[in-house]
Amino acid sequence: MAQQDILVIGAGGHAKACIELIESTDKYRIIGLVGKRSDLKNQVLGYEVKFVEEDFEHLSNKNIAICIGIGQIESPEPRKTLFYRLKEKNFSIPTIVSPVAYVSRHSEIGEGNQIFPHAIINVSSRIGANCIINTKALVEHDSSIGSHCHISTGAVLNGSVHVGDETFIGSNATVRNDVLIGKKVFIGMATSVLGNVPDMTKIVRSTS
What local confidence, expressed as pLDDT, does residue 1 receive? Predict the structure, then answer.
């Protein structure tokens, strides 16, 4: 099967992780990175920063996919803004799944997600668009995650957990089954979430 050309937006740590994720699938050929003007001609894992965001205008008519290689911790806005800008210009933003992740064939996965090594998305789960499901994250059966979320490394969402749009769940956080987590919530690393969390809440310690 012919590889599709793909650009990675970003030149930092998450971009490196995305490059390796893309390489592992053997479905895409990375043709360069998109960064700041000060990054132009720099190399990241052997790939050159060739473009800036202003170049999207003349790239949008070509058959080029885009991977948003910008991370998300404090705010979902940079990734969210880019996602909708790219959609307006009719770019393909594929979901990229590590070959060593597990995604149930009975799950529903939206557009532009990044599912990293050893992540598990179990039966009857639903993922929105433009999410990061990071290394070793677990999304158990019947759970749902909105769009523009980041489920960090080693986070555990037990059965029937529902997460609203633009929410961040930190590394090694654990969410009890049947919990509802609102929109734009920030849950810190290693937090135990035992009860429902309203919109726009920030939690950095265990809750009940």
Answer: 67
